[in-house]
């Protein structure tokens, strides 16, 4: 077959799954934009992008197998599999590989942002498969997509920027390029009908488009939502009688291996979740969200790099300004950010004589958060 014919067949295959679910949903641009963040997986895995579910419901079992093989979501009850799925999604949303110095050379300031793109793409696709597998509700799935979208728009300037960062993040994790995904990314950037070409990067992300997803759901999607709701109720009852606390300190290494979805991290997911986790706690007050931000200090070439974790729980619609202080009880420094962007940074570069860091945010209503202080660990002080 000549190359031109192969290219036409390739494009036809890309459209096939979308055609199978076309008309079942009528997603607004905000929701389409969020799903497009994982379009490289949509393309490689033969999925569609017209609905939250990546495939038609006949492939529900395939999504479950993918999550089992790639993300170790293999509990022996629906409630346990739901817990595991939410734990994976929470890890991608608030920590991911961007929080691990393992994937960045000392002094590499670009690594956290590269790995953020890598984490965002996987967060969206895992959420889609978790919904189809009935591990999370449709509302929960769209909540993850919404916050991934807002993270992306606050952190990158264009689809090209996001694509480049994703490629580098994936390469940092895998140790080299992947021709299959490189080709998928190139296709999305060049194909006129791809979502990366038809959706403007600065598409307004309207919360109502994500908060009321049921109005866009197919009949099958609503039935799936009802099945998941029953699992949530059962899991909530189980969690209510449990008093154990999940201890994640000193966990071993997890090494899952299957394509670009896999995770290699120095921290292992807990084998049992005793308390039902809340996905992203989107209803939590901004003050509570701010209280969940944590930091890691890393000595690097005469300075100290600070990686801020759990920052997605405080999205930019919640606050007006972020400040930090170095050896100062009252934060007064404003991080450098591109024009128009207002977000909690994922990384800060501090001088080598830093003993402690303070952070504070001003919320949109004018109120101020409590000042939070983080002391530089003795081990980092000794190695800088």
Question: Topology, pairings included?
Answer:
Layout: H1 3-21, H2 29-36, H3 39-44, H4 60-71, H5 78-94, H6 111-132, H7 138-155, H8 159-174, H9 179-190, H10 195-198, H11 207-211, H12 219-240, E1 254-255, E2 264-265, H13 286-290, E3 294-300, E4 303-309, E5 319-326, E6 347-351, E7 356-363, E8 372-375, H14 378-383
Written account of the structure:
It is a single chain. It contains 14 helices and eight strands. By secondary structure, the protein is α+β, with helices and mostly antiparallel strands. The protein has two domains: 3-255, no CATH class; 286-383, Immunoglobulin-like, CATH 2.60.40. The chain has a three-stranded antiparallel beta sheet with strand order 3-4-6. Strands 5-7-8 form a three-stranded antiparallel beta sheet, with no helix packed on it. Helix 2 packs across helix 7 (138-155), helix 4 runs antiparallel to helix 6 (111-132) and helix 6 (111-132) packs across helix 8 (159-174). It is globular.
